[in-house]
Amino acid sequence: MADESPLSSEQFLGRTNERDLNEPLTDHAEGQLFLTEAFKIIVDEVLRKGTDVKHKVCEWKEPEELARLLDLELRETGEPQQKLLQRVRDVAKYSVKTSHPRFFNQQFAGMDYYSLAGRYLTETLNTNLFTYEVAPVFVLMETEVLRGLRQLVGWTEGDGIFCPGGSASNMYAMNLARYRLFPEAKSQGLYGLPRLAVFTSPESHYSVKKGAAFLGIGMDNVILVKVDDGGHMIPEDLDEKIELTKSQGAVPFLVSCTSGTTVQGAFDPLDRIADVCDKHKLWMHIDAAWGGSVLFSKQHRHLMKGADRANSVAWNPHKMLVAGLQCSALLLKDTTNLLKHCHSTRATYLFQQDKFYDVNLDIGDKSLQCSRKVDCLKLWLMWKAVGSAGLAERVDKAFVHVRYLVEQMKKRDGFHLLGEPEFVNVCFWFIPPSLRGKEGNADYQEKLAKVAPTIKERMMKQGTMMVGYQPLGNKVNFFRVIAFSPLISQKDLDFFLNEIERLGNDL
Amino acid sequence: MADESPLSSEQFLGRTNERDLNEPLTDHAEGQLFLTEAFKIIVDEVLRKGTDVKHKVCEWKEPEELARLLDLELRETGEPQQKLLQRVRDVAKYSVKTSHPRFFNQQFAGMDYYSLAGRYLTETLNTNLFTYEVAPVFVLMETEVLRGLRQLVGWTEGDGIFCPGGSASNMYAMNLARYRLFPEAKSQGLYGLPRLAVFTSPESHYSVKKGAAFLGIGMDNVILVKVDDGGHMIPEDLDEKIELTKSQGAVPFLVSCTSGTTVQGAFDPLDRIADVCDKHKLWMHIDAAWGGSVLFSKQHRHLMKGADRANSVAWNPHKMLVAGLQCSALLLKDTTNLLKHCHSTRATYLFQQDKFYDVNLDIGDKSLQCSRKVDCLKLWLMWKAVGSAGLAERVDKAFVHVRYLVEQMKKRDGFHLLGEPEFVNVCFWFIPPSLRGKEGNADYQEKLAKVAPTIKERMMKQGTMMVGYQPLGNKVNFFRVIAFSPLISQKDLDFFLNEIERLGNDL
């Protein structure tokens, strides 16, 4: 080998200035050392400090200052290891700690160490879930995890796939429903078809509209069905809207129900919607991205009674089960290989038919993606670690916390619930002392609308906790506290209530 | 606190059977210990053994046996730590080692330790790239990384987004092009529109067709433009096909060129295609998922000459730059906020307009996804570590290896190239001794077609290396070796050639 022969000084100088491109560019020992040091920083900054209430949830910086602190610019030459480790530390420092017990902001709070180990393994193995050849373990594992989830829906057979998020899962369902009705749309497009219509409630996730736009169906053809005060779709109105739409010459093809709406956490009445879908022969899809996890709980699964009558269910274990972003399953009752028929293009360079193993194991053509990340391992390992019982416990715990929060809010002045929570979203206004008893004033709503944004700004700048707010319909800004993280205790809920008061009492 | 008061025996028994749901469900010390042990296993099994040529690339098992070995079933109760660590070891053991120097199978070979550290950090921080509020670091970082990539295309301004894979990036481009021409399609769908037509070559990625189907355009409206022998789109044929399509009453709106076709690695002639697009005022998209990385190399960037004239470029740094699955950027020349106009639905619960910071930093509504994974950090950290120069070196090294492979193949009997490689895909037939000189025989092609699958089966079962094969048009099965991993040396290429001979010489 060239390396063993003595080098001329010219060759030697050449080597020091420029690496020999015939040799590997990577020093594994150096790389593994770096990774180990980075791992220690991650554990310390994100997992130890980042989950400790003595540390901040976020270290707020204005964008200009943060950009300066991070020194984001990408340059011609590389940096030394110590500087890179400092960068790991900085990224951790200035990022929001979504696992912090006082991150109540969104539906991806919390964290699970088993899932995290699964995610590290997934990232390190770095494979693609399209053929048995490159992902033997994961082709089989995904099948098993989907089976386990389907079983909770109530299906002994069926199909499914993991998608890059709930929006994608909902869009897949829309495409499948369309294909079932008009398979020719795949090759010919929508030009020859009558106007297609989708039905959902105004409180459903915005991906239904995004999907209609992307799939060429059009957002105006997403017909919004009325909801009751609690935010549940009204089946009678659904039936009427379907009839009306038909009479206008359009073709209804999908009802997208929601199990756990984003803001209020409402569960649409599935059984009664299923009756309407049966009557009109429509595809019934359930967006259970947020609420699906109740299926683990014996005590709370009744919220999704009738789910087994649906054609498809979108369920994100990255939310309540804290499997980690992203983990979104689309579950199907279908046993006719609709997913494959609808999506396949049969690329011969990937899905060769003369392989030495059963080519039905090459599941990639079911997907719209070519490179598809492995999202099943983190859920599988976590499920193995805590069992179905442990996952049920997470769901039950969240309900216990919500009950406690609601009780406490009722005992305190200033906390005004939008309504009794059905799920684990607690929506409330904080009425500062200056506004109490002033409900009749003309500017009351206007003043109330400014309370949540002001409290939010203060909490962000102080970094003590995070919670979201939003308006809804004619209701002005209110807080929505999401308290399902398995990392939190009652003490964190007490802190939450005290902190809202501390930050808002002078408003 | 309740925990400090003495418990009655009943309470004590209650505690042992059932956890107090008011308290956290997670023991951080136990969790961090597990994660640390899992990390050691991952480093040892995947990064140390998995990149060592003394170990196998894959431990082949038949599906039934593998399922049994893995014990995939999900159960009611959890498992002890040691068993879970064994599961981590098993998943690693039976997974394909895509970082192994002898994994030549696909465009996601190789690995980078800096990127991997970034990926661990991303997974641990577990946030969502939709608002500045929850992802301050990453909102700024994504902007900077996209700017860096755009600069290489030749654009000083523009827009972009990271998508879950190249297929999604290509579909985004298709939707943007459609929206530019017919913004009303977003609300009204395609029903009132004339038939839309997309132009691409038969060697382009299958996601163009998948996208056309999904977006309601229809696969039949993907018009295939002729290619020359090397697999490059012929601009004259493009021009003719556009004219013909117009004359048939359809509306051409997008040309999807390819920089680095999947099989042969061909680069479409961008400058000449841009002329045709200019003439017909069509959106020019470049699917540079595979080939985009040549833009880093001074020596090879000429392959994409004219890229700056495109409207959009899809580029997957998870391929040649080994940023890790997934890392796919859609780059746009647009400065009119088209991405946001095209995709936004303005969900008030996420994108509140009365925030205390500049709401233009809330970039989530540009995306079709709601939860969008952070894909920029891994690329950013790696780029910081090795610099643009280091990434260029990876590209150049791959070309050096290809040159070597080609030279060696020409020196050996039995290796027959499809043609001179333009990029880093080396496509060749291995002609076993029994078939040499028999080209004239009637059953030659039929026999040759069986050679690659047989060699493939043998190498998989022995686990010595992995390389893909496929037919293409009227060309029977040939190998396609992808040798761009920064972890390989010339020795691995010699091994490759020897191993093909060893496995195929008796055929």
TrEMBL record, chains A, B:
<dbReference type="GO" id="GO:0004782">
    <property type="term" value="F:sulfinoalanine decarboxylase activity"/>
</dbReference>
<comment type="subunit">
    <text>Homodimer.</text>
</comment>
<feature type="region of interest" description="Disordered">
    <location>
        <begin position="1"/>
        <end position="25"/>
    </location>
</feature>
<protein>
    <submittedName>
        <fullName>Cysteine sulfinic acid decarboxylase</fullName>
    </submittedName>
</protein>
<dbReference type="Pfam" id="PF00282">
    <property type="entry name" value="Pyridoxal_deC"/>
</dbReference>
<dbReference type="GO" id="GO:0019752">
    <property type="term" value="P:carboxylic acid metabolic process"/>
</dbReference>
<dbReference type="GO" id="GO:0005737">
    <property type="term" value="C:cytoplasm"/>
</dbReference>
<dbReference type="InterPro" id="IPR021115">
    <property type="entry name" value="Pyridoxal-P_BS"/>
</dbReference>
<dbReference type="GO" id="GO:0042412">
    <property type="term" value="P:taurine biosynthetic process"/>
</dbReference>
<keyword id="KW-0456">Lyase</keyword>
<keyword id="KW-0663">Pyridoxal phosphate</keyword>
<dbReference type="InterPro" id="IPR015424">
    <property type="entry name" value="PyrdxlP-dep_Trfase"/>
</dbReference>
<feature type="compositionally biased region" description="Polar residues">
    <location>
        <begin position="1"/>
        <end position="11"/>
    </location>
</feature>
<feature type="compositionally biased region" description="Basic and acidic residues">
    <location>
        <begin position="16"/>
        <end position="25"/>
    </location>
</feature>
<comment type="similarity">
    <text>Belongs to the group II decarboxylase family.</text>
</comment>
<dbReference type="GO" id="GO:0007507">
    <property type="term" value="P:heart development"/>
</dbReference>
<dbReference type="GO" id="GO:0030170">
    <property type="term" value="F:pyridoxal phosphate binding"/>
</dbReference>
<dbReference type="InterPro" id="IPR002129">
    <property type="entry name" value="PyrdxlP-dep_de-COase"/>
</dbReference>
<dbReference type="InterPro" id="IPR015421">
    <property type="entry name" value="PyrdxlP-dep_Trfase_major"/>
</dbReference>
<keyword id="KW-0210">Decarboxylase</keyword>
<feature type="modified residue" description="N6-(pyridoxal phosphate)lysine">
    <location>
        <position position="319"/>
    </location>
</feature>
